[in-house]
Design goal:
The protein is mainly alpha-helical and 251 residues long. 78% of the residues lie in helices and 0% in strands. The protein has eleven helices and no strands. The protein is globular and about 55 Å long.
């Protein structure tokens, strides 16, 4: 899926990151800025905006470390098979999609921004679910980058879609059905995924809960699901503690 060669990956991935980063700066510093648009269209699947910033900072640092490793890969046949090279095409697609998303979002074209979110979220989720091999000492950093991208992509998808279709609606329509569907999807994703995706799912739910009306029934549902997915995530991290320790010792 969108695989590129080593030499292409070495310039494409950093260039796409720079494009996305520049678009994010535009979004934060223009008038109206991305938060102004978010506040104007806040909906029942909209997160507390500062949780996005809280995710963006460590994600940026981890991606820079990954990019540094990628560009320093030797120009050998073996490097062509490195998982970072294989993921670079989807990574670049995601960066371009989210960069363009910001332009549409800040111009209040939430219909077009939603299309960008769908492209990014589905491509990242597909790669993580179907193309990413099991984690190892050699590819663990790519696992972190790809799964953080996919994890925040889930949040982007429900946020943009609800803001586009239900701006200003703070309690979901068909409350019971929406609550059950949210519970099934979120706990299902946490249960079948690895510790990284499970943790991202719990974080997404916490961000959503914090973005709701304090004390509302919908916020209580989201807090309950945060607790459930956090327990699932913690159990997965505990089960993987040996592998995590090996990776830590190898740094």
């Amino acid at each position: 899926m969108l695989q590129v060669g080593l030499n292409t990956a070495k310039w494409l991935a950093p260039a796409s990151w720079l494009f996305n980063f520049a678009c994010q700066q535009y979004g934060m510093n223009s008038s109206p800025n991305m938060k102004d648009i978010a506040d104007r269209n806040h909906s029942f699947f909209s997160p507390q905006p500062f949780f996005i910033a809280g995710f963006f900072f460590p994600q940026t640092i981890i991606q820079l470390c990954w990019l540094y490793r990628l560009v320093r890969l030797p120009n050998t046949v073996a490097s062509e098979s490195d998982e970072a090279v294989k993921y670079s095409g989807v990574y670049a697609l995601g960066n371009v999609a989210i960069g363009v998303w910001m332009i549409f979002w800040n111009n209040s074209r939430l219909d077009l921004s939603n299309a960008c979110v769908i492209v990014n979220s589905l491509s990242q989720l597909y790669y993580v679910a179907n193309l990413l091999p099991p984690a190892s000492r050699d590819n663990w950093l790519t696992h972190v980058v790809a799964k953080m991208f996919a994890g925040i992509g889930l949040l982007d998808l429900v946020d943009n879609t609800s803001s586009w279709l239900y701006p200003g609606v703070r309690s979901p329509p068909h409350f019971g059905l929406t609550s059950v569907a949210t519970a099934v999807v979120s706990t299902g994703v946490a249960a079948v995924s690895d510790p990284i995706m499970a943790a991202c799912t719990a974080y997404d739910l916490l961000a959503l809960a914090q973005g709701q009306i304090a004390g509302s029934d919908w916020q209580k549902v989201l807090y309950a699901l945060t607790a459930v997915t956090s327990v699932i995530s913690a159990s997965k991290w505990y089960a993987a503690r040996g592998f995590v320790a090996d990776i830590w010792r190898s740094l």
